Amino acid sequence: MSSPYTAYLTAAVQAARLAGAFLREHFYSIKLVDEALAHDIKLRLDKESQQLIAGHLLAAFPESSILGEEGNEGSEAAGYQWIVDPIDGTVNYFYGIPIFCVSIALQHRGELVLGCVYDPMQQECFTAVAGGQPLLNGRPISVSTRAQMREAVVFIGHGTHDGSGETGIRRFAHISKQVRKIRILGSAALTLCYIAAGRFDAYVESRICLWDFAAARVILEAAGGRLEFEPHGEDGIKGAIVAWNGLLPLHEALQLD
């Protein structure tokens, strides 16, 4: 079934695969660090990967703009805005852990309309147009049918530097007693896509940025899942998310004593 965003999705997949091939090529190389933070790392390859993505997308759609983790390009008034995370899972990538991805979403007049998340090491490409059929390498995916916490595999972020550490650790311990397993991948976009594909069941994080989850949100919601975002601040870029397969009693499970 055709969509007005088909050409945009094609360009997003091309850009994600282009950047993914670049990152895979450099995966075993020595990586230059632009900035080392207490709990994060900024690599030269982050910027170079975003430049590849932005160059491809803006060449295909010069009227669009870029909102990216590594900076913005184009007019803020553009009707079409790409939301780009060139390496979601930078710390994993830096340490040689092959769990990271390229994440590209498109926003049209403030509404998320498509998402592409590409894992270059597993060569898995998750895609969706809002309201359409989500795909993994061209095959349909959907969330799990698990409806009980004791059956669930979940990602619970527990905070380190955002002022929520103590509460986050309590929440982590509280949920861990209720579920089958807790897994922490180190990539928000892949975690959400894993929920969309029925591999995981829920994800809770108190500190996340729009580019970390925008593309995967489209894919997750198209797959039948749910995501709630609570912005921190007026710009709407950072905040907290609760995401799940739409069946688990997640909010009840999160209530601390």
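Above is the first protein from milestone M3; the second protein from the same milestone is given next.
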Amino acid sequence: MRAIGALILSVAIVVALTVAPSRAAEDQPAGQNEANVPPMAPPPVSTVPVTPKDAAPPPSVTIIGASEAHGVLGRDVRSAAGEDMGRIVDVIVDRTGHVRAAAIDFGGFLGVGSRKIVVDWNALRFGKIANKKDSITLELTKAQVAAAPEYKEDTPIVVLGASGSLQPLQAIQ
């Protein structure tokens, strides 16, 4: 985008320089002959776009096949026994950007009485999620998730893990 802006700026400068001499001739007193003024040749147009010194390098591009990755927000979550566990409503990351957990809107009926429970990302299985209707499997029972404390923003997060091996975040100073 910056390269396009720089190219437009350089074209505008070239146009201004070529139009300026003709306007100067119009502003001369009527007694002067235009033949006495040597014509100015326009400067050559640069084919190299001018970029500011602080321009960012072009971004890298990665192409992921349509069958290789899918979004998970709003996806249904089921237990290994096929029990409805809710939907993924948030993804929790640590300060380094690593995915640590998922918040699941659990329980209730038609959104009434549900609560958010946070489960360890490693307790989720994404076997078949090519279709939006495909669910994600959670390696916990409905009773285990029902006993977990509710997730509330800006409070310490209790993450329910399948193996109990989730380590707490270390304080970054």
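Note on the second protein: Residues 2-26 form the longest helix (25 residues).
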